[in-house]
Amino acid sequence: MGKSILEFKGIGKRFPGVQALDQVSFSLNEGEVLALIGENGAGKSTLMKCLTGANRPDDGSIILFGKEYTYLTPKEAKELGISIVYQEFNLIPDLPVVENIFIGNLPCNGFIVDDKEMLKRAQAVFDDFNVKIDPRAKLSTLSPAMMQIVEIAKAISLNCRILILDEPTAPLTESETEILFTIINKAKQRGVSVIYISHRMEEIFRICDRAVILRDGQYIAERNMKDTNRAELIKLMIGREIDSYYPEHVSVAQEEVVMEVKHLWGNGCRDISFCLHKGEILGIAGLVGAGRTELLSVLFCDAPKERGEMILRGNVFRGKKPWDAIKKGISLLPEDRKVRGLLLDKSILINMTLAAIKKYCHMGVIDEKTERETAQSYCSTFGIKSASLQKEAKYLSGGNQQKVIIAKWLDTDSDIFLFDEPTRGIDVGAKHEIYELIHSLADEGKSLIVVSSEFEELIGIADRILVMSEGEMMGSVEKTDFNKELLLDMASGKR
Amino acid sequence: MKTMDRFISKYSAQIILVLLIVFFSLECRGRFFTADNMITIVRQVTTMGIAALGVSFLMITGNLDFSVGAIYALVGVMTTLLYTAGGMNIYLAMLISFVCGTLLSCFTCFVSITFKIPRLVTSLAMNMAMGGIAYLISGSKTLYGLPETIKWLGQGYIWKIPISMIFLVILALIVSFILKKTFFGRYMFAVGGNPDVARLSGINVNKVNYIASMICGALVSLSGLISMSRTFCGSPSAGGSLSADVISAAVLGGVSIMGGTGKTSGLMTGVLIMGVLSVGLNMMGMLTNPQQIFKGIMLLLAIILDSRSKRLAASAS
Predict the structure, then answer these.
(1) Domain for residue B292, yes or no?
(2) Predicted ipTM?
(3) Which residues, in sequence order, are CB contacts of B305 under 8 Å at separation 6+?
(4) pLDDT at B317 over 50
(5) Measured between CB atoms, does A346 come within 8 Å of chain B?
(6) A246-261: string of b/e by CB count within 10 Å (b at 16+)?
(7) Which of A59, B44, B61, B119 is spaced 20 to 30 A from A31 at the CA atom?
(8) If you measure CA to CA, which chain B residue comes closest to A357?
(9) Do B184 and A364 make contact, defined as CB atoms within 8 angstroms?
(10) How many angstroms separate the CA atoms of B272 and B21, rounded?
């Protein structure tokens, strides 16, 4: 193992009302991939902001390349070779790839940008990574994985020594994640140290050398990956044991078919047929671009269907708009809850009752008392921990945000739930709660379709899994045959 | 310190209004803060206030409209022409103009929705076209010859209170009630806050936009009629800078240009700020052109404050 290049010494950071970091000390070695793990709010992001200069620590110091700093400015951090890649990309979609890489750092002859030099250097980085990206292509034509790689290339072009990856695989599929891992290994060979923040345990075990665990702003422990296991890390992260990662659940699927889709075409979906039973949790697996989200849009009448039939409880459903679907008891938990699921600036209350607000109205006027009481009862049944119903949705944790959306649909008396990536970007403890919630919905006789990019998650919670590839249904896998390799094979186009 | 900050950001419009009144009172040595002058200000702002109530429906649903000034002028010109040249009953003429103004606002909405063009752009084109019509049919002249019977609307009093002001207060209360207490208010905030979320929650976004446009058109047309009655003529230039003034007032009062937020109390304060400014600056002897510069700067500041508070809120999350 290389020598230590970075050391946090007793870092503390207070925000009004919270001690975000408290006496955090650990070090990072040269050419090491270090996992920084902890639940949301554990202080990972705050600590990384201290390193990139976005936050100024209140106590302690940072030793970088043998020199001690009480704080860093963003400029110093950049000059010392610290780069961070966020899960939301910091790139400009309309510019070519190459300009995105060198923006802010354009190679110039006097006033004139040296295009050739720029192209040559970009190409060299991509060749080194062994990925095929045309540096002249417009960024917006790239897949999320390729954009991620461009972000990393940008960091490398700045002669980065410490690369921070914050949830880098959240938007990526499993095959794209492989590409990312190859690149991390390449960077490692160049002597770049990587701090890897992720909620996905299997990835951490594959790519990282060592893990540092934070909880409630404090340093809890560190483990070499080869000396630990998933259960131990989860226990350290949440401070208690989770009985098993995926809660036990006996399928309650009944014979009764609540939704039948026959030869459905539209929005990129091609000839989709399947049945959804009462009380069933039906997983849909596939890679990004397989058409899973698109299929849910068609089912929810948010995208037009060109051909085919949808039969709900024995009757042909000819809805044209989302409100038709909602009237028939269908609901959608969208993929990106912050952009499509919630009014972030509005309160928990307003978000919860938005879809069924007319229920509370007499002559158009809202009965606020009943509304508040209902919302309050959802908060207590779901364990939404918030001081007040008036709290704005943006201040809630990811898990609580999802619960608010689920409550919204229970309020419309939905019984067919379409869940698109319900646990994306949510910490381990909250994921567990969402799984339990999904199971309890099924127990109540609701039917669920769950789309997820994590095969393991679907295997853990679904009763049956449909696999899609390029808009087509590749087949259906029963619970007894669940197996990751099989799903991956089918998702990549093998029948 | 924290509570102080919150107080200031919550009541910024009210604070600005008080500061302006104090400033003009000192500057004009007692001539400003008099009962008569306050009535003058309120009378001046009633038509603008009613138009602003209408525009607030659009702004809350996330639309900026620069054509309300043209509707405002067109309604007055049309009524006067229908009465003087067409020989029509004055109330029928007013009703027809009112309906036309309302429909024109709906038409702007129709174009925006059908061709997926931001309302800002559509309304600029509509403003030119409707302004053109107002000048064309009036022959670019101010039209006189209205009957005495309509004076009550813009110039009448009940117990020394201008009737138009009573209109404003009643309408403001109704609008405030709609925004706060009805599902339609919730729908508007949802559509302005995030149309995707609104649609996926089963809200008919287009329908909400049409209704908001209709209400806006109706309120602006009403204010145009009141203004016609007060000035007792139909003038193609009546709209003037109304569109921009109303948006300034709304933004000053905390109605976001991004949509999704706004309160009637803030809106009315914003309207009063604009009224105090123009009366105060007049008293100080400032001419119209420098006043325009001043108002332009005010709007700029208001927009900067608006986007800053949005960003502050975003960074807090």
Answers:
(1) no
(2) 0.81
(3) B12
(4) no
(5) yes
(6) bbebeebbeeebbbbb
(7) A59
(8) B183
(9) yes
(10) 10
Min Cα separation A494/chain B (Å): 34
Q: Looking at per-residue confidence, does A442 or B304 come out higher?
A: A442
Q: What is the pLDDT of residues A29-69, one digit of tens each?
A: 988 999 998 876 678 888 988 898 888 899 889 998 888 89
**Per the CB < 8 Å rule, is B260 touching A408?**
no
Range of the domain at B171: 46-239+257-263
Return the structure tokens found at B211: 């209704």
CB contact under 8 A, A346 and B189: yes
Cα distances (angstroms) measured from residue B66 to each of A94, A310, B288? 30, 45, 21
Task: Give the residue on B whose Cα is nearest the Cα of A337.
Answer: B197
Bridge partner list, B10: none
Chain B residues lying within 8 Å of A392, measured CB to CB: 317
Q: At CA A53, angle to CA A165 and CA A223, rounded to 5? A: 45
**B317 and A394: CB-CB below 8 Å?**
yes
> Inter-chain contact B182–A365, Cβ cutoff 8 Å?
yes
What was the pLDDT predicted at B288? 77
Q: Which residues of B touch A16 (CB under 8 A)?
A: 2
* Whether A400 contacts chain B with CB within 8 A: no
Total count of domains within chain B: 1
With CB atoms and an 8 Å threshold, state whether A343 touches B194: yes
Q: Which residues in chain A are contacts of B199 at CB distance < 8 A?
A: 302, 322
Q: What is the pLDDT of residue A396?
A: 81
Task: List the 297-336 stretch of A: residues with Cβ below 8 A of B.
Answer: 300, 302, 321-323, 325-327, 332, 334
For residue A263, give the nearest of A295, A302, A307 by alpha carbon.
A307
Tens of pLDDT, residue by residue over A323-376, are 999 988 899 999 888 888 888 888 888 899 888 888 888 888 888 888 888 888
Q: Which chain A residue is nearest to residue B317, measuring alpha carbons?
A: A395
CB-count exposure of residue B124 (10 Å: 0-12, 13-18, 19+): middle
pLDDT for A168 equals 78
| B201 falls within a domain | yes
B195-228 burial code (b ≥16 CB/10 A, e <16): bebbbbbbbbbbebbbbbbbbbbbbbbbbbbbbb
Residue in A with minimal Cα distance to B193: A343
CB contact under 8 A, B182 and A344: no
- Reference B235, options B153, B164, B131; nearest CA is B131
Provide the H-helix boundaries in A93-215.
97-102, 115-129, 144-157, 174-189, 201-207
Binary contact (A361, B183; C-beta < 8 A): yes
Whether the predicted model's global pTM rises above the 0.80 cut? no
Mean pLDDT of chain B: 87
Q: What is the dihedral of CA B305, B310, B311, B313, to 10 degrees?
A: 120
CA–CA distances in Å: residue A104 to residues A251, A362, A476, B168, B301: 55, 58, 50, 54, 30
Three-class secondary structure assignment of chain B: CHHHHHHHHHCHHHHHHHHHHHHHHHHCCCCCCCHHHHHHHHHHHHHHHHHHHHHHHHHHCCCCCCCHHHHHHHHHHHHHHHHHCCCCCHHHHHHHHHHHHHHHHHHHHHHHHHHCCCHHHHHHHHHHHHHHHHHHHHCCCCECCCCHHHHHHHHCEECCEEHHHHHHHHHHHHHHHHHHHEHHHHHHHHHHHCHHHHHHCCCCHHHHHHHHHHHHHHHHHHHHHHHHHHHCCECCCCCCCHHHHHHHHHHHCCCCCCCCCCCHHHHHHHHHHHHHHHHHHHHCCCCHHHHHHHHHHHHHHHHHHHHHHHHHHHHHC
Query: Is there a domain that residue B297 lies in?
Result: no
Name, in order, each residue with C-beta under 8 angstroms of B160's C-beta and a sequence gap of 6 or more: none
Q: Do B193 and A358 touch (CB under 8 A)?
A: no
Determine, yes or no, domain membership for B120: yes
